[in-house]
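Translate sequence into structure tokens.
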Amino acid sequence: MLDRLFKSFAKDRGEETPDEDALPRAVAALLVEAARADEEYTDEERGLIDRILMGQFRLSAEGAADLRARAEAAQAEANDLYQFSRVVKDALDRDGKMQLVEDMWRVVLTDEERDPHEEMVIRRLIGLIHLEDTDSTAARRRAEASAE
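Result follows.
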């Protein structure tokens, strides 16, 4: 009850209250963006995204599927990557960002093809979260090695 009261006061003063779901939703939306970039969003990609979310955020299968569904809706409504990348940039350290990029590569490579649109999504993201092309290359190689 007190928590709701404090949130209410913060809203009245124009202060933002932290959204505990912001990081998981942003990560999930970026994974969905990578999966949808080639306009083929498969059950295999959905399953991999769910497994990534379960491991990353310690979610149940149902929780991961629900998070992915909410991220799908958010990603479909978004005009660009900025609203998601901003959350990731502010919330994750370098290792966390590298893990995200590797996970995005894992999603992109589920069909064993590198589509230029999927690569472009990752390339744009690494610039927005202050990583380098060499970081993306290293993450892609790790993702390729883990798929073997």
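Note: Residues 11 and 17 are 8 Å apart (CA to CA).
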